[in-house]
Amino acid sequence: MATKRCMNAGCMAVAPGGEWRKGWALRAGGFAILCDKCGLAYDQHVFCDIFHQKESGWRECFYCGKRLHCGCIASRNSFDLLDSGGVQCLNCIKASGVQFISTQPMPKLLASPQMRQRPFPLSSRGLSEEVLQGRAIDMTWISSDTYDPSQVKWEEKPILSLNRNPSLVGTSSQNALDLKDITPENNSSNNNNNSNNNSESLAETSLSMGLGLANTSDTEKTIMLSSPELTAQKVRHFVPKQLKVMPHDAAKDLGSLPHMRVARPPADGRGRNQLLPRYWPRITDQELQQISGDSNSTIVPLFEKVMSASDAGRIGRLVLPKACAEAYFPPISQPEGRPLTIQDTKGKEWHFQFRFWPNNNSRMYVLEGVTPCIQSLQLQAGDTVTFSRIEPGGKLLMGFRKATNTATLADSQISAIANGTFMADPLFAPQVDNLQIVSGYSGFLHSIKGRPDHANSSDSDVGWINKAGRPLPNEGSLLQPLQKRSRNIGLKSRRLSMDSEDALELKLTWEEAQDLLRPPLTVKPNVVRIEDYEFEEYDEPPIFGKRTIFTVRASGDQDQWIQCDECFRWRR
DNA sequence: ATTGTGCATGTTAAT
DNA sequence: TTAACATGCACAATG
User: Fold this and answer.
1) pLDDT by residue (tens digit) across A89-142?
2) The predicted structure's pLDDT at residue A447
3) A215-220: long-range contacts at Cβ-Cβ below 8 A with a sequence spacing of 24 or more?
4) Which residue is nearest to nucleotide C6 (CA to C1')?
5) Is-above-0.90 flag for pTM?
6) How far is the CA of A314 from the C1' of B6 (A)?
7) Closest nucleotide (CA of A117 to C1')?
8) What is residue A404's predicted lDDT score, i.e. its pLDDT?
9) What is the distance between the alpha carbons of residues A82 and A51, in angstroms, rounded to a whole number?
């Protein structure tokens, strides 16, 4: 049976029933296709490539030839695949009284209220705001010359591959999708044990483990401006001189890495919080080449997990998020699973057993034999393990990130603000993440205090670094459910856990945070223009205070207004 | 007695 | 109510 897969190279999810159709690929306001498995949203350009427009006005699907039912020109980009076959525009669907969005089963992976943890902000419909607003989503793609489906050993053969011009990496809106031939899939269902066993035995997946220490220098921190809506307006941003300010533009950021190809991270289900941010692990070309043997390799981030006490214990079993294990690891049909070999950047190989336990008519996926690895890397509960994959070759990368520092909550808040990490964009919340860990792991804190390698998390942040040797600004920005985390630390930490929830409520937008920061009036800032942003650069750190505005009289004198907490009136 | 293995159960979040 | 998952626990294997 012909099988359609998610077009996200890092997902490879198979459409239910083998058909890419309504219910699996959702259209979001006509601008995007959301894979039910990975939550990937394609921008409208990609979508338009799928349904191309005929001169006569009607459209047909590139792949199945189904025609737009009504030929409504105005509904360009607004299609839905009909169960009965064919295509119909959303306007006509609405006109017929059939609800579209609201009746669609929300992608399981997008429906979580943990929105601040997802790569893209969601609307109330669970759809990316970027998508709904028609903004091109910052996507980068794997080029066809580097993505070799045949190297994905645990798949018979991916049905879809991405055909991208390498020169266009980072400018997804200009790229076009290309569907490879559709091949009958050797369906590795759980019921087909024989075929699975064969494929499993044949497909000894090689994993690579990358471990890099990202030294975060206090004098060199990169903060990111979050709001794409910010235009050339002059914005008061408090930017200590030692801080580097970069516009929030992953594509540009990636574009500075000519040899590094980075694919878009998939979203995920319940474990969506375990998804890697869209600023993926980046390693140097040299490191990547050492791992993959190919300097043109691409890193496809997969998922990550914060290690629980059980994971880090002596049992040597790492519980894997089910959705992630099924989506990204080789399919296994037997509880015994299959071995996975892991090597680190130095070539050291680790051998794990990837298996599952039957559990309530479901499965619990575990990685067994992780004790030597954990001990070697001195990982413990609260540390994060990340999984990525290198294409071509399908090698999996396993990175680690130590838990965050031991700073006090208050210190963290201040630090977060000072570092510019209180931002509107949920993409950027590394310090908030820190807050959670710091405040939510009382027992954990004790252990870190006794361990030098954990005592300074910013220095022990075991993650990926970019070519310049800087830690990725967003690495570690994934927020884990607070309850999940606090569960590991016992009742004593519950109060602190609540505190951290309160702290999360303090999460401000970038502009709001700016409102709370004010410079001494006597200090004259240097105005620095970067891209379309103007920044006031102060030698002195900002003062954290009440909402403050500044006015300038005709005489040129400047007034400072502070808003009353109670009456909300402004006072000079 | 200790450690490893496999499954069961409790907790939590999602539906 | 269901699903995911962290962890408990009984039993087996081993020293």
Assistant:
1) 444 444 444 333 222 222 222 222 222 222 222 222 222 333 333 222 222 222
2) 28
3) A215/A459, A215/A469, A215/A471, A216/A458, A216/A459, A216/A461, A216/A471, A218/A242, A218/A458, A220/A244, A220/A470
4) A310
5) no
6) 16
7) B13
8) 60
9) 14
CA distance A138 to A305: 24
If one counts every other C-beta atom within 10 angstroms of the C-beta of residue A358, the result is 9
In whole angstroms, B4 C1' to A485 CA is: 27
Q: What is the pLDDT of residues A524-541, one digit of tens each?
A: 666 666 555 555 555 555
Per-residue confidence band for A341, with pLDDT thresholds at 50, 70 and 90: confident
pLDDT tens, residue by residue, A3-54:
344 443 343 444 434 433 333 333 323 323 333 333 333 322 233 333 444 3
Which chain B positions have some atom within 7 A of a protein CB?
4-15
Asked if residue A523 has pLDDT above 80, the reply is: no
By C1' distance from the Cα of A335, the closest nucleotide is B6
pLDDT at A206 over 80: no
Phi, psi of A310 (to 5 degrees): -65, -40
Taking the CA of residue A334 and the C1' sugar atom of nucleotide B8, their distance in angstroms comes to 19
What sign has the CA pseudo-torsion A327, A11, A227, A111? negative
Dihedral of the alpha carbons of A531, A534, A540, A543, in degrees to the nearest 10: -120
CA distance A302 to A142: 14
Q: How far is the CA of A362 from the C1' of C13 (A)?
A: 28
Residue with nearest Cα to nucleotide C8 C1': A310
Q: How many CB atoms lie within 10 A of CB A423?
A: 25
Distance A457 CA to C12 C1' (A): 42
Query: Strand C: which bases are under 7 Å from protein Cβ?
Result: 3-8
Q: Which residue is nearest to nucleotide B8 (CA to C1')?
A: A359
d(CA A373, CA A541): 43
- The residue lying closest to nucleotide B10, measuring its CA against C1', is A487
Q: Residues A45-76, buried b or exposed e (16+ Cβ, 10 A)?
A: bbbbebbeeeeeeebbbeebebbbbbbbeebb
Task: Enumerate residues near strand B (beta carbon within 7 A).
Answer: A 106, 108, 111-114, 270, 314-316, 335-336, 357-360, 364, 368, 481-484, 487
| pLDDT tens profile A378-437 | 888 888 887 777 766 677 778 777 776 433 322 232 233 223 332 222 222 222 232 222
Q: Which nucleotide is nearest to A366 (CA to C1')?
A: C5
